[in-house]
TrEMBL record:
Residues given in the record as substrate binding sites: R298, Y302, E329, Y356
Record's function text: Specifically catalyzes the decarboxylation of meso-diaminopimelate (meso-DAP) to L-lysine.
Active site: C328
One example GO MF annotation: diaminopimelate decarboxylase activity
Record-annotated Orn/DAP/Arg decarboxylase 2 N-terminal domain positions: 24-266
Gene3D superfamilies from the UniProt entry: Alanine racemase, Lyase, Ornithine Decarboxylase, Chain A, domain 1
Name the UniProt record assigns to this protein: Diaminopimelate decarboxylase
Coiled coil: none
InterPro entries for this protein: Ala_racemase/Decarboxylase_C, DAP_deCOOHase_LysA, De-COase2_C, De-COase2_N, Orn/DAP/Arg_de-COase, PLP-binding_barrel
Description of how the protein assembles with itself and partners: Homodimer.
Gene name, Swiss-Prot/TrEMBL: lysA-2
Amino acid sequence: MLENQLLKIAQDFGSPVYVYDAEKIESQYHRLTNAFKSVKHLKLNYAVKALSNISILKLFKSLGSGIDTVSIQEVQLGLAAGFSPEQIIFTPNGVSLQEIEEAAQLGVKINIDNLSILEQFGTKHPKTPVCIRINPHVMAGGNANISVGHIDSKFGISIHQIPHILRIVENTKMNINGIHMHTGSDILDIEVFLYASEILFDTAKQFKNLDFIDFGSGFKVPYKEGDIETNIEELGKKLSNRFNAFCKEYGKDLTLAFEPGKFLVSESGSFLTQVNAVKQTTSTVFAQVDSGFNHLIRPMFYGSHHDIVNISNPNGRERFYTVVGYICETDTFGNNRRINEIKEGDILCFKNAGAYCFSMASNYNSRCRPAEVLWYNNKAHVIRKRETFDDILRNQVELDFSPKKEKVIA
């Protein structure tokens, strides 16, 4: 989107506000499908946790995507968005057997990553198809908090526990229809991903009735100019060739599945804030904006980088600013950033705000969450209204603490 379009949205809808570009989402989706066009059966399941607005889900449905869900509520949201149960895969971690059974009753694909739950579910529901999530013990992510395939991860069943899985499957006679892995976010080296894929192929050979192999996702997007990203085209070529060869060896055309989230929506998003004050101390110039980590927690949570642009002064001279929020504790978006000169009232744009921004927002400090706007067909559409103070109070129950009057005895 152009900066003047974003500025107009901030003027029309107020700040702070999340803005998503539908055209960018569509182009990322097609980029990924084109990279694997030589695979006979390809299925992309958008990871709902990245950005769960129902209009975004409907957009993905129109593109032919399925969805990857991690909670029963995300499953219900997908059904509400019009996805059929077979277009939804449920990939939770640490949930109860009851929640998995509830999802299974809704007819969605089930993915289990715990030996105990696998045995319990297989004993009670041997005819229900189940995918198994494997931990390949390969760390492919760029940050320890978002790398989920290493040996100490809580996710997946260890490849060293394959004999236990086979024993459970044999004893329960359960139906295993898929094998899954997810190594983590921000994959930098596709050779590491391909190495983990070989582990998944070796595991898949142990199961004779598979319908699909799910390679997770975690593809890295660029966060700033000149930043590296996952080479999707090279990965597509190499993994497609290997997958097609495996299908011949397996004797069946399986479906190659992915669960991209950040890759599809991150770059589509802009988060717009207004500068409340410019404050100079003895060593720092702060740009203080009308938001905080209650709306964009990623920089404070795990040090993520978001480019910050002053769209009110695109041609101004550059100065150094530390951009901070209004939360009553350390609340820094970016330290010592080179930004076009900032004045109070200017609109700052945070890039890469499509993934894990609104979905991780909160009402901390009793602040309302912002509106969400989708730029679609050259028009701004509100897809979530800005919260009001009534929303803060909506589910609170007030008790009566007024003093009780004593009875007066005449």
